[in-house]
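Researcher: Please translate sequence to C-alpha cells.
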Amino acid sequence: MSDNPLKQTPADPFAEGAEAARARKLRSLAIAGALLVFVGLVFAVSILRLSGHGPVN
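Model: Translation complete:
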C-alpha cells in the first residue's frame, strides 16, 4: 500500500525549478513588505489626523 501516489507529497508542487521558486518567494516577500508599509502609513496618518484636531463643538 505504500505505492499509492495520493499519499506521497510532491517535492515540487508547482513543477517549477529552484530559480522560479526563489523568485516567487522573493516576490511574495516584497508584496508582504509593501503591504506592511502601507498599513503602517495609514495608521500613522490616522493617528496624526486624530491627534492634530481638537474636540468638535
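Researcher: Any highlights?
Model: Residues 26 and 32 are 10 Å apart (CA to CA).
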